[in-house]
Design brief:
Elements (H helix, E strand, L loop, with lengths): L2 E7 L3 E8 L5 E7 L5 H15 L7 E8 L1 H7 L6 E6 L5 H4 L24 E4 L2 E2 L5 E3 L3 H14 L4 E5 L8 H13 L4 E4 H4 L5 H31 L6 E4 L5 E2 L1 H6 L7 H16 L5 E6 L4 E7 L2 E2 L1 E2 L2 E3 L11 E3 L3 E2 L1 E4 L5 E5 L5 E7 L18 H7 L17 H16 L3 H26 L8 E5 L3 H12 L4 E2 L7 H7 L10 E5 L5 H21 L12 E6 L6 E4 L6 H4 L3 H12 L9 E5 L1
Parallel strand pairs: 1-4, 4-11, 5-6, 5-9, 9-10, 13-23, 23-24
Antiparallel strand pairs: 1-2, 2-3, 7-8, 11-12, 13-14, 14-15, 14-20, 16-19, 17-18, 21-22, 25-28, 26-27, 26-28
Helix pairs in contact: 1-7, 2-7, 4-5, 9-14, 10-11, 10-12, 11-12, 12-13
Amino acid sequence: MSHRVGIDIGGTFTDFALLDVSSGHIATHKRLTTPAAPASGVLEGLSDLLVEEQVPVEQVEAVIHGTTLITNAIIERKGARIGMITTAGFSDVLEMANEHRYEMFDLRITYPAPLVERSCRVEVNGRIRYDGHVETALALSEVKLAVRHLVEEKEIESLAVCFLHSYANPDHERAVRDIVRADYPELFVSISCEVFPDIREFSRWTTTCINAYTQPLLDRYLRDLEQGLFARQVRAPLFIMTSSGGTTTPAVARSFPVRIMESGPAAGVLMSARHGEMLSIKNLLSFDMGGTTAKGALIIDGAVNKRYEIEVGRVHDFKPGSGLVAKIPAIDMIEIGYGGGSMSAIDARGLLAVGPDSAGAQPGPACYQQGGKRATLTDANLVLGYLDRASFLGGNFDLSLPHAEAAIVEGVSEKLDLPLARSAWGIHDVVNEGIARAFRIHASERGVDYRNSAIVAFGGSGPIHAIAVARKLRAPQVIFPVGAGVMSAFGLLASPLTFEVLQGKQVFLDRLTLEAFVEAFDRLMAESSQALVGAGVASRDIKYRLRLDMRYAGQGHAIEVALPEQRSLVEIFPTIEERFAERYAGLYAPVDLDAPVEITTW
């Protein structure tokens, strides 16, 4: 017998799913997350689950893991001290950004501070043109001095190397990495030509800085986890969930931690789509609500939408452009600032507000009896009868109704002169309306009519609020999956091993030859297959999905065009312009422009 384990760490709880591969039986487990030492909670929970199910560790054939560790580190600013080496004259790009104002009429508009302090950004001479030709040779002596200054004087743990147009010619960035490895082999290095090799320096550099900022943190966490698994005699390979819905190896995750920012929530969206497929329902709202936050996603015609730019650490939750930009392949989701641990308060206007601050796992809601004093959503749901004290966490966790009532009375009832039940309902309904509003915004920004979509509700808190949210959205149906509280862990078990690569290369379609087209994709397919073969996948089992980012000449942004599967590159080549026109017409309207078509990203 063999078993696979899915483990999803959330801000409040860590979820486990154990699959018996031969019988299909799935056992589940849930325990409080240990924020101070996340790996400890994972290891203890895994041991408890294996003991409960009487499964020897030798029968575990794979451990698949999802975590929000990277996102939380950025939001809480608990990453590494990092430095940056960049092209002379461009150290302020992180502050200048793209000059977009996310709120046109806000005279006091604020943006998130860069992850790299101004004093830790060092410029060096060396310049590459947009076409890859070297304009100015890299000053290697300046690089050596810059690295020494950052390591010995600024005491950085990790370095981001960000040069202009490195997507067209990576030689200068790789030369800096070689110097660092020779002089300071213990220093973590992220180079933008590998993290995100595409045009637009601001988004490429912020993505690289996020990668550098979280590399030491993830490396320590994975080392603790791997050592703990080994100490418990678990010899099964470890895989990490990516933001795009696939899994990867710890080695790849260590190199590109930015790719696993949304790893846990992505698994839940995939399972929502799977439930829709089994029930023959094509349009769904995936609603995942746990102890700290909620996540929403749209599934249209059975397909999970992806995007290649996400934001983290927004200054304002519902204002795109107010966060740090990360260019990574990810499932298109919206983060909603409500969870079971969301704390209530009376704002300056005298109105009841809930979130985004959360009690988390420590101290947790007042009813956990771990020192929490402020009334949370979980306390309100307990008072309203939505939670069963006898069965919470399998009956292994004692919820205190008196503690919940006392917190609500002190924090809400006395201040608003309301009875206990009315106060608890107020907390509950504020959250319901906030979730519904977030879905409305998310759908309207994408031009989607959500009113005929069924809601798939999961996570520890999702099913409690799903019916009320569905009524507010006029959704006709709500789906409550079996094991809803740990469904993201289920999704980890079904996630394929994937590796995505891209290359920024601008070329007009009428100047592109078949030979150049085939050569570009052959190189990308070889790079991705090498990573998968290194993870143990047989070459014959690898499948490829090819995409191009395309636009009309003169446009500022491109659209993604999926190329046909199960066809050779020679067969695909003549159909590229037709597929671009179809995609463009589907997104906007049919057009007949004389402008030539341009490929920007492969």
